[in-house]
Fold:
Amino acid sequence: MNMDLSNELKEKIKTAEHDGGILAKIKINCNEQYEQSIDVLKKIKLQIKELEDERKKITAPLDATKKAVMDLFRKPLTALEGAEEIIKRSAFAFVQKQEQARLDEEKKLRDKAEMERLMLEEEIAKNQAKGIETVNLEEKKADIITPTLQSNVTKISGTFVKKTWRAKVVDFSKLPDLYKLPNDKLLNSFAVETKGAGEIAGIEFYQEEQLISRI
Structure:
């Protein structure tokens, strides 16, 4: 992206990049170097503030323009996305209803076929016991099929029901340790509140230290 920057700002950016690379190599091995490093921190923070101010001069108008554009399109997009979601839910509910009707009808036909098969088997058994020919009955039994109905929902290219396996916890106490994740936010909050004096089985509290420079 080409931007029309002043020579002064270009020099500030170039200097900051150079200084950042050099200052990152500072070593602190004595009090004198420690004191000098604090002075360096002051200069670094001043440079950061100056660059942030310059950056905001450029980005503030862009941010304002972006916000205006987002506001302009937010309402119509929200309306369309809402309608899309409603239609998807309605279409899915229709598919589910039709699928359940298909399964119910298929079960009725399957039960009917099974009943016919059992009746024929009973009749065949009686005839065999009496020594009566059962060839015709055997053929009728063989002709009985268990129907499989096809969905009557119109197939539309690019539209289908995606099935994805998911998991939900129904008994946390039986969950293997591999799938148990600690609540780090809650544990850290407890550590701060108790200053590490609290006790939780399996947890060790410790302090992280860092140098704060409010200059």
The two ends are 34 Å apart (CA to CA). The chain has one domain: 7-194. The longest helix spans residues 31-130. Residues 68 and 74 are 10 Å apart (CA to CA).
